Amino acid sequence: MALLRQPLLLLARSQQVKNLVSTLPVSAGIVRGYVPGEGTEDAVRAAGELAADGLTATLDFLGEDTSDRAQADATVAAYLDVLAALSAKGLASGTEVSLKLSAIGQFLPPDVAPEGGHRVALENARTICRAARNAGTTVTLDMEDHTTTDSTLATLRELRKDFPETGAVLQSYLHRTEDDCRQLAHEGSRVRLCKGAYAQPESVAYQDAADVDRSYVRCLKVLMEGQGYPMVATHDPRLVEIATSLAGRAARPQGSYEFQMLYGVRPDEQRRLAASGERVRVYVPYGQEWYGYLMRRLAERPQNLAFFARSLVSK
Ligand code: FDA
């Protein structure tokens, strides 16, 4: 099954396969397992249901790699809409948003963004951070493939000058990440640590799952012993156990760090951790652009491929 990971991650970037697969309705079983719906109301409903179960959420309006300025603007508008809806429903304090810079302009070509995609994404992210603060919540910048790491961390530094509550994501499969954890383990810093979900070359990333896990533990140790707020994003039972014990060794009380898992993945474990007093946040993706996200989830769990194929045939 591990052999299927790289091809599935390459398909995640294929426009032709995307065109075929995206004709599936979001209600198709395999999509619905990971995405609660397409609209603001679906995301807010999911956040409300999670809150009723003692869980917090981070909402992600799906989309990535846009080269279209209108689409980047529409993504900003979607975030403003969902933040207003969360505020109106009294859900903003337990629900933040996650944001991909490539969805709000990072890769806009010079003919549509003469000022540069990096600058457009920074200004758009600022607009969303301001709306989040006004609603009483925060933004975390998702991390995409390794070619974007420096630019995303540079944007984080700029944003944090005005919005120091902005969170970052670091990926343990990258060789550089232990150093990045040291840089970001300071007071007020919020860091989500995950394994990493993209196909990355050997020159920059560990290829062996055991090496990625060992790196995760080293990074987690740095974050737990630091002054920031670690966000432990994994479904891996061993890493969840290690995180709890590292928190204990660093004399961190529950609530001075949190666990994070994806919507639809190990929901019973999410509730078990919350019932044991841990803070648990569920990452809730919503919107029409679910293709790349779904392919990365299938790469992590190729056992779901048969289910996925049945959804395509029976659509
Ligand atoms: P691993 O993949 O080893 O899975 C451990 C166990 O979890 C599996 O044995 C299985 O039981 C269960 N599981 C895992 N994936 C599953 C799936 N898709 N379906 C069903 N069961 C599954 N990545 C990134 O590059 N940039 C980012 O910004 C983020 N953001 C992010 C936020 C949050 C809250 C989470 C939880 C994850 C991310 N990720 C991410 C994804 C992350 O990098 C990683 O690809 C996945 O979390 C899977 O890795 P695990 O740590 O869960 O381990």
Automatic annotation (TrEMBL):
InterPro entries: FAD-linked_oxidoreductase-like, PRODH_bac_arc, Proline_DH_dom, Proline_oxidase. Its cofactor is FAD. Keywords: FAD, Flavoprotein, Nucleotide-binding, Oxidoreductase, Proline metabolism. Pfam families: Pro_dh. It is an enzyme of class 1 (oxidoreductase). It comes from the Bacteria. Residues 45-308 form the Proline dehydrogenase domain. Pathway: Amino-acid degradation; L-proline degradation into L-glutamate; L-glutamate from L-proline: step 1/2. This is proline dehydrogenase. It comes from Nocardioides cremeus.
